[in-house]
């Protein structure tokens, strides 16, 4: 005789309602309860959300059950992610998204965590011992939706069965997967790591998407013999900044011989036209628009996402040095 599965312990109404969507993924009701407790602890007001502190906040004697759930319990990560993407797609519906591809990293001591090694941490701007992930976000009507992330696996930390993929290769996988899910991507934004990848740009164009990507100042463009590089006049525009008043910025189009499908712009980082050195950045786009300043405004959405990601890390008590 099969013993009926007991009902899971209730937590908070909106968490129970959301997590119920994942109920069928967990064969053991205790694992489903741990799943709910993690959400409850994550949204609690405690400053640092370690497993022991989350456990104490939700009324557990220790964090052992939560630790077991994350490390040893049998549940399918792909099914969890699939359900979350399905719920996100259902919420967004047929609205078009601006897809932002970016990476983030965290410093970590030691190498007990998988794929931790000395590597370049983009948001720190230097090489540190840490872990890096490639992330895809969707922006819809000013709201940011986390979609997919994947841990970058350095060659020196690969485990048996792992296949090495560069960050651009990971980005391509993400774009293709989101397309298969039915997300309507009208524009892709990415930094120069992906903007300088011919494979990434080819993938975006093959899927008939628009893009705005950063490129290096020495980005190479093939030009017919006798052609010359030209610059249009600097144009002022108003740049929105996080927690600061709007400031004037400048941009100009760079034309290699003659204007092609892909267009190039130089944008100032300060309120002075004709910047020098590191005071400007460069972008490439296949977006046809009549008002060039819109290019800069659209691309700047990436900065708002990184700012929001920092807020989330701070809220979860992950803004400082991670010790494991």
TrEMBL record:
<dbReference type="Pfam" id="PF13546">
    <property type="entry name" value="DDE_5"/>
</dbReference>
<dbReference type="InterPro" id="IPR012337">
    <property type="entry name" value="RNaseH-like_sf"/>
</dbReference>
<feature type="domain" description="Transposase IS701-like DDE">
    <location>
        <begin position="35"/>
        <end position="248"/>
    </location>
</feature>
<dbReference type="InterPro" id="IPR039365">
    <property type="entry name" value="IS701-like"/>
</dbReference>
<dbReference type="InterPro" id="IPR038721">
    <property type="entry name" value="IS701-like_DDE_dom"/>
</dbReference>
<protein>
    <submittedName>
        <fullName>IS701 family transposase</fullName>
    </submittedName>
</protein>
